[in-house]
Design brief:
Distance between the termini: 68 Å
Number of domains: 3
CATH class of the largest domain: Alpha Beta
CATH topology of the largest domain: TIM Barrel
Number of helices: 9
Helix content: 10-25%
CATH architecture of the largest domain: Alpha-Beta Barrel
Strand order of the largest sheet: 1-2-3-6-7-8-9-10
Radius of gyration: 26 Å
Largest sheet: 8 strands, parallel, barrel
CATH superfamily of the largest domain: Glycosidases
Length: about 725
């Protein structure tokens, strides 16, 4: 029979913009009415893979080959602010060239599918991580291949039959129910019988659990951050928890596919990780389809969507864009505006579906004569690149800028024009009507001139007066928003003042004459036994440092420390990380720290140094008295908007010559950039300065490596950038 994929569970150079394609319109049907009664029982949130304040938007590069994903991480996803990329299942699969769903029928756990080889996959993961983009892998644990794939052969040349996968599984490793699910109201049948002919693994078997965990651990060893668990609804959550407990990093991010219903509610899976919110997509289709978006003023759990802290949200995914249960790229402006709303409104962890155009819902991507997917070049071979269209990219930046600020200043026209603010961080207007909208909006934003991130890149020269709005001292602005379009402004996208900060500068705008309060020395207990300790922090209202963070140095027995230049700020927010995805984020709240000394242990912050001879409260960045010296690096360097200056060098505290771990310097005394780093006293360290551009590229200063041999409690070096 013809085997279909199951229907029951269903951050580059800005010059690339010209190659991006736009979608065309065609509506699809609503999700089944059974979604209305979704269970929303609240349980304690589980540890997540992201720290509060970190970038949490995922680009789903559906069916993209690994070499193309790697290029996109460097050229687009990293610079555009995406925190994650989700890639398709990397396992070997049946070679049926005209379908996409073969990727969801593993025949072995070798990483040799139609998207590329194991080495290409490993190279892609490293490249994406280097670009600051973490990798989530779409993972199949419920089943192997199905009836319709018998005799097809595999992309990687594996031999297999429905219940026999040599060297991996044999007949006894599958559930004894060898027929398709018939009674969807019977939980046991839903989770032990077959899903449209797919051989259903006995995930209650410790042997099977071990094999699945071995596959996931292999992916983790290659640098993967987390997993999308396909068809999680069809696996008992106790089995998933047992598998996750076998991982080398049991705190790895985990998002589960379950169309919640009374038989298998989403709340069954909250203890294991996030859950995909299909009702969220359905409700957005309803409002941006034939409804009225003014109704979204009350959007939340009362609509039957999942609690925000457990929800992985999307406007469409690879199933729903094909089966009509959500909007899709074919809905044109409605689809773009729904994604705009998702990225502007605070709910869950958002994902952007980015695949290829199709007319046949089963059709796979373009492949070559060997069965491997062709290079994903935007605008060619059907590749859509939704993730890098300007309205979406602009809203990813908006989402990152507003963080967890609350919704305020809601306005609507009683129909399909809405506007709302996100605290004093941003403001968005959505016009889903046939005519232009001209209105004076009241916001909580600081006065200033802001770039509309929907219509243009705020870092590009094209952000001229035709793409800006001016917020007055009273917080109002007047703007005209074209039909079926949007406008969004945020504090990271200003062209003049407004009291905002430059991304990453940790202080005030260059040349503003702001005062300097000094530094903060942060100690963190090593009683967790982590192999490494990083601090991920935000100075004042500035940008967060790149995750997982900046290396902390040994301070004294049981403690590591990091001294941070606060510039004109008096506070910082921080989380801590082991460098491999395990976070201490203070129960999903940032640690709120102040200038001087902060010592963090077991979630408690004190202001007394834990190391003998270290500075007391109110210190502004002197030595620790434990064999290290606080070195103040100061370099005179001119920059353009979007550039920042870093110091990198030969020691771990200076990033070990890895520019992704370089220490950010503050521009509070521009054109002098300053930063404080604790270095081992009496030991010579080599260093140089680098500029990081808005697109993620790095420029090194010229000349030989500089050196410093620090001694005493503190020392300062004063340099000038070498062109």
């Amino acid at each position: 029979m013809k085997l279909l994929r199951h229907r029951t569970t269903p951050d580059h150079p800005r010059t690339h913009r010209a190659r991006r394609t736009t979608a065309v319109a065609a509506a699809t049907t609503l999700l089944a009415s059974s979604l209305v009664g979704i269970a929303t029982t609240t349980v304690a949130p589980t540890a997540q893979a992201t720290a509060p304040g970190a970038k949490n938007v995922t680009a789903v590069l559906f069916q993209w080959p690994w070499t193309s994903v790697a290029r996109e991480c460097t050229d687009s996803l990293g610079p555009d602010g995406y925190g994650y990329v989700q890639v398709s299942p990397p396992t070997d699969e049946p070679r049926l060239q005209d379908q996409w769903w073969t990727s969801y029928q593993p025949v072995s756990y070798t990483l040799n599918g139609k998207e590329g080889t194991r080495q290409q996959f490993a190279d892609m993961v490293k490249t994406c991580n280097d670009a600051g983009v973490k990798v989530i892998v779409d993972t199949i644990v419920n089943h192997m291949s199905g009836t319709g794939s018998i005799g097809a052969g595999s992309v990687g040349g594996e031999t297999f039959s429905k219940y026999d996968y040599p060297g991996l599984y044999s007949d006894g490793d599958f559930h004894s129910c060898r027929h398709d699910i018939a009674n969807w109201g019977n939980k046991t049948e839903v989770q032990t019988c077959e899903l449209v002919g797919l051989s259903d693994l006995d995930t209650g078997s410790d042997y099977v659990r071990g094999k699945i965990a071995g596959y996931l651990n292999d992916l983790l060893s290659l640098g993967v951050t987390g997993f999308r668990i396909d068809a999680a609804k069809h696996v008992n959550n106790a089995d998933l928890q047992a598998i996750k407990a076998k991982l080398t990093n049991p705190n790895a991010y985990w998002a589960q596919e379950d169309i919640s219903d009374a038989t298998v509610p989403a709340s069954d899976y909250y203890a294991t990780g996030d859950v995909h919110d299909f009702a969220y997509a359905s409700q957005l289709k309803s409002q941006f389809g034939s409804g009225q978006i003014k109704n979204l003023a009350s959007f939340g759990p009362s609509w039957g969507i999942l609690p925000s802290e457990h929800a992985s949200v999307f406007v469409s995914n690879h199933d729903t864009e094909r089966n009509g249960n959500s909007l899709s790229y074919k809905d044109g402006a409605a689809y773009t505006l729904a994604n705009t709303f998702m990225l502007a409104y605070p709910d869950g962890s958002p994902s952007i579906q980015s695949g290829y155009a199709f007319t046949n819902a089963d059709a796979g991507p373009a492949v070559d004569s060997t069965g491997h997917v062709k290079d994903a070049v935007c605008g060619e071979n059907g590749w859509l690149c939704v993730h890098s269209q300007q309205p979406i990219v602009g809203m990813v930046g908006f989402h990152n800028a507003v963080g967890d600020a609350a919704v305020n200043s809601w306005w609507d026209d009683g129909d399909n024009q809405i506007a709302f603010g996100r605290g004093n961080k941003g403001f968005v207007v959505i016009n889903h009507e046939g005519g232009a909208l001209t209105h004076t909006f009241r916001t909580s934003l600081p006065a200033g001139t802001y770039c509309d991130v929907v219509s243009t890149d705020p870092k590009a020269a094209s952000c001229d007066s035709s793409h800006t709005v001016t917020v007055g001292a009273d917080g109002t602005f007047t703007a005209t928003v074209p039909a079926q379009s949007a406008l969004a402004i945020d504090v990271d996208s200003t062209t003049t003042g407004g009291g905002t900060t430059d991304p990453g500068d940790g202080g005030t705008d260059p040349g503003d004459g702001g005062s300097t309060t000094g530094g903060a020395t942060v100690y963190y207990s090593t009683d967790k036994g982590w192999p490494a300790y990083d601090i991920h922090y935000q100075v004042g209202a500035g940008a967060w440092t790149t995750a997982p963070g900046v290396a902390m140095s040994a301070a004294c027995t049981g403690w590591v420390s990091k001294t941070i230049d606060l510039g004109a700020a008096t506070t910082l927010a921080a989380t801590f990380n082991n460098g491999s995805g395990t976070w201490d984020n203070n129960g999903s709240k940032n640690y709120a720290l102040k200038a001087g000394v902060s010592a963090v242990k077991d979630g408690v912050v004190t202001t007394t140094s834990p190391c003998a001879g270290s500075p007391g409260g109110g210190d502004t960045g002197t030595g620790t008295g434990d064999g290290t010296t606080a070195v103040t690096f100061a370099v005179t360097a001119t920059t353009v908007f979007g550039q920042n200056v870093f110091v990198v060098g030969s020691t771990a505290a200076l990033g070990s010559w890895d520019t992704s771990k370089a220490v950010a310097l503050s521009s509070a005394s521009y054109p002098v950039w300053k930063g404080i780093v604790s270095l081992p006293a009496g030991t010579t360290a080599e260093y140089k300065y680098v500029r990081k551009n808005a697109d993620g590229s790095v420029a090194w200063e010229s000349g030989a490596n500089r050196t410093t041999t620090p001694s005493g409690s503190s020392v300062a070096v004063s340099d000038t950038w070498r062109n």
